[in-house]
From TrEMBL:
This is tRNA pseudouridine synthase A. Homodimer. Residues 10-103, 146-267 form the Pseudouridine synthase I TruA alpha/beta domain. The gene is truA. Keywords: Isomerase, tRNA processing. NCBIfam families: hisT_truA (TIGR00071). The lineage of its organism: Bacteria, Bacillati, Bacillota, Bacilli, Bacillales. One of its GO terms (molecular function) is RNA binding. Its EC number is 5.4.99.12. SUPFAM superfamilies: Pseudouridine synthase.
Amino acid sequence: MRRNICVVIGYDGTDYNGFQSQPGGNTVQDKLEDALLTLTGENIRVTGSGRTDAGVHARSMHVNFRTDSHIPASRWTLALNARLPDDIVVHSAFEVPDDFHARRTASRKTYRYTINCNKNPDVFRRKYEFHHHTPLNVEAMREGLQHLIGEHDFSSFTSPLSTKPSHIRTLYEARLETEHRYDVFSSAMAEADAKRYPGKQRGIIHLYVTGNGFLYNMVRIIAGTMMQVGEGKIAPEHISDILNARDRSRAGPTAVPHGLTLWNVEYGETLPLTDHV
């Protein structure tokens, strides 16, 4: 009897054309399927819990596949990591019910977008955060995010290339966390910033959004729009108007992909606790 195996993976998406296989190749799915072929001798197709774009990362993505292999679930992690490139890591593996589907069974997904508002980029984290060289008004951004919580038509916050028949999605949570990782010589700079950018601050901003599903480029457009709120170009209360317009041109730009990470996927009581951090 064929088994349904689920693995939880993390990856640095910098050098990949996204997760899902495509004609141009070089995707995370391709690497996983190559590793499975080497390990089992089977041509296995995997299903991921998300379809991250080129350059987007994943901290915790669930992937399931069916196999005739008798390899114990406890052995898949080590066996696959030995056959995967260094920028893709399997954190855990377990057998799941036959009807489990990594994408369709998911109940909640969380993405994180990271913005570095320090004067200079961080040479060690530059691949995982967007550098915004001027400070942002974090409180205004927090206020703007609250208008997105709930069930809405997110047509204003998706790419015109979206093929989904419905743009109605539910955001359960949208929040900001700040991290004060300052540049060298930041004291003098902070004093100058206080005069030049009143109400704004430097540091690292992590934007977390949790929902029942996300549209094409949705999180990146939310991030780009919130940065315009932080710059003072869009008033926080106007986010509701942007939503109601159902018009992509009303929202802000699509933020660059490398600041985005698929942070976590939840399945209710379907799966055991697998958070590896």
